[in-house]
Batch of 2 targets.
Target 1
Amino acid sequence: MPHGYARRVSLATGSAAALVCTMVLGGTPAQAAPPTPPSAATARTQLAQLTERPQGSQDGYSRDKFPHWSDQGNNCNTREVVLKRDGTNVEQDTKCAAVRGKWVSAYDGATWTQASDLDIDHVVPLSEAWKSGAAQWTTERRRQFANDLTHSQLIAVTDNVNQEKGDKDPAKWLPPKTSYRCMYARMWVNVKHVYGLTADSAEKAALKRILDAC
């Protein structure tokens, strides 16, 4: 199997790594994965509470209406914080750019040692959010959504896998690593629930099938 495959998200451990992470995140210890979403049972409840509505229009959408990546302090922006959080032994330069480390893309199991091979995926894509209610938000609310480190909205993954996903919802795209699909559905539902976004019928049906099999 070629280098770059067979990996899982792992964390930097040990006092030295914890100290570096603390510096990058302004005093908050780093995690090694997105914040854990609620259980499948809770996600099923949250899914049932999502307003079912046909997907809205793309009219007026622009990524610029979701300002990112925001300054997170210590010269770090949101992208660099996620790269640090989701990698192992990540070293950063004075501008907070990751210069070396190891990352395991949860979506496909691929292992990478160059940050340039990774995208930071918005689990619920910005375009999907726009069509699900974010078109009515303030710019500040969209900024919060696009840089959310509190919920399971951001994850470092293989760049071309993220590009293949695009703005597709779970009725049209799921992580190729099948063992991660339950987690992905939990993440998606929780983000939509937290932000009060809607879901169309095909999306809800796909998510229900996944969560029922968790």
Target 2
Amino acid sequence: MAIAERNAKQLATLISDLLDIEKLVAGKLNVNMQWQPLVPLLEQVVSSNQAYGAQRSINIHLSQNVPETTVFVDGQRLLQALNNLVSNAIKFSPDGGQVEVSVSNK
């Protein structure tokens, strides 16, 4: 049941992403830009991908060196993009591998 629920959530996310792309092309996508601390967003991405990684014994963790910084973003859109990146990293990592989420100020 847990796997079916996770897969249903992933499908819903994909459908939502496709609808957002359609809205973006039509110029109707609402973007809510605001200053937000970055670390909680990254922690949420790591947490929400743990179950997917665990299916293939892939350890996902947030680097210890993440700077305490604030970013001007649409939090939901950033989460959407980062979740896609992390899930792809999991998908293309070998079983038993590791995915590290890190950030640098450059």
